[in-house]
Amino acid sequence: xxxxxxxxxxxxxxxxxKSEAVxxxxxxxxxxxxRCVLVGARQSLDASGAAVDRVAVLGGDGSxxxxxxxxxxxxxPLIEINTGKLGFLTEFSQEEFRHCFDDAMANDxxxxxxxxxEVRAGGASEDTLRCLAVNDCVIQAGPPxxxxxxxxxxNGEHLTDVRGDGLIVCTPLGSTAHNLxxxxxxxxxxxxxxxxxxxxxxxxxHKPLVMARDVQIEIEALxxxxxxxxIVDGQVVHPLRRGDRVRMRRxxxxxxxxxxxxxxxWHKLVTKLHWGRAPNFD
Length: 282
Prior knowledge:
By secondary structure, this protein is of the alpha+beta class. 17% of the residues lie in helices and 36% in strands. The strands form 4 sheets. It has a 6-stranded antiparallel sheet with strand order 7-6-17-14-9-10, with no helix packed on it.
């Protein structure tokens, strides 16, 4: 039974770097004030410590990712409102948010859980990077742009060594990001899986791989460049040195997304990425 939205607590966040998000923040603040318990409306992507039922995020895909990372283990349902360009991860336009507000706040059946990654990197003695990933963890060759050699281990078993420009490990949600551009598989966002895709691998046999989401993946830097880098969600950048290891596993908490009741599971893939559209022969 859906709860009354009037008693639910909402935090409204707007990306301070996006003028449209800042402009809409005050307008939406006025809209929601009489419809729920508004605990805050601010120009920030930090929702840490928020004791709320929903967090509404004004911005684009990067805004959603930043807010999710700030929540850490204390994930709460996110309502994403697109004020960016493509906004593939965002579920609502500003008009749709207003129209679907009551349902989005009260109906817990609209909450979809998505796998997050825990990423750790460093040498043998300690981790110098530890964070969560919403979309992906990418190891990229970097200057002087010679091929790198990466050892891949799954659940402690050596799987292969990949020579090329790097590797992508992605969540299903992130399968339509860098992974898609690199020729990796598109996965439905709520499946229980992780993707492994090589970047320009120097082998015809290193095809993309889909694995169960509970595997533990370890990448060993066998041979790297001075500029070889670990990149998490395109936002966190960390140098990778020879002998370092990058360890990835499912994060203990899941991302929670409030789905748009107007849209099917494939709506964004078809309307925003135009998947399956026939070529124009005119």
